[in-house]
Amino acid sequence: MSETDQLPRQLRLLKGLVIGLGILLGVAAIVVVFAAIWKFSEQQKPVAATTPNTPATSASATDSLPAFGTAQLALPVGCEVESATASGDRLVLLVGGPDECRRVVIADLKSGKKLGEFQFPTAGQ
């Protein structure tokens, strides 16, 4: 084979490689799009947040956790719950007020018991 025959063969190989990688890139993009669509369509619908005045009426929210009656989580005087978030079987309460009140309380939704808390004391305490 001469040098002139070798060049077209290399160009054909390069052209084939570029076409193959382009097809691979297109297939990968399609897989990513379908994976994103599947992930977003399979997400569970969030359970509506409840406050003491508005109990949950969703059947799925009441069926997934056993009832534990009335649970009390004591807070120091002057402290108030600023927000409550349910995640899995945990309830996370953000407590605010004066500096001694600042804390995050974590409770078990299945038993209603306090699991623990994170306090944020000032440097002088």
From TrEMBL:
TM ranges: 17-38
Lineage top rank: taxon: Bacteria
Keyword Transmembrane carried by entry: yes
Keyword Membrane: yes
Keywords: Membrane, Transmembrane, Transmembrane helix
Entry protein name: DUF6476 family protein
Source organism of the structure: Dongia soli
Lineage, broadest ranks: Bacteria, Pseudomonadati, Pseudomonadota, Alphaproteobacteria, Rhodospirillales
